[in-house]
Design brief:
The protein is mainly α. The protein has six helices and no strands. The longest helix is centred in the middle third of the chain and has 38 residues.
Length: 158
């Protein structure tokens, strides 16, 4: 009885590992589905290959390496990080950093301009019409019925 239970546990373990690997491998025929979800002939063969490799005692990493060697790096949903894919992986961070830097620069510049205008007023230097408009815009409180997106509209108009 214990031998049969052990066999069932081993089969479940093989099945769980195979499903986990299959979810991370792209179907070479469909392209948009994992081999676990695809019913293409190549997907069925790859699922069988993965199960055979697991039964042969291979680790998950060895199986991924074999699939990558046989079908190329695009067969894996999570490409590895190296010099060729660095731009792909880092581009969201670069874009977010640039956007944040631009936003901070605009805020700093606006505050700096207001400070300079205030100093000029204290020194008795008259403001230009554009500076007067900016000071009034900054110092005048918004009316009570403004929408929550008014700050967004003001920021876009700058």
């Amino acid at each position: 009885m214990e031998g049969a239970e052990d066999q069932v546990k081993k089969e479940r373990l093989v099945e769980a590992r195979a499903r986990n690997i299959s979810h991370n491998v792209r179907c070479t025929e469909c392209g948009s589905q994992s081999i676990e979800d695809s019913q293409a002939d190549i997907a069925i063969l790859l699922r069988k290959l993965i199960r055979d490799e697991i039964k042969a005692g291979k680790s998950d990493k060895e199986i991924y390496t074999k699939l990558e060697d046989d079908f190329g790096e695009t067969v894996l949903y999570a490409p590895k990080f190296d010099m060729q894919t660095a731009a792909l992986w880092l581009s969201p961070l670069i874009v977010a950093g640039a956007a944040g830097g631009l936003w901070a620069y605009k805020k700093h510049r606006q505050k700096t301009n207001v400070h300079i205008m205030a100093l000029n007023l204290v020194r008795g230097i008259p403001l230009t019409p554009k500076e007067k408009e900016t000071m009034l815009e900054v110092l005048t409180p918004p009316p009570g019925g403004t929408s929550s997106l008014s700050w967004w509209r003001r920021w876009l108009q700058q």
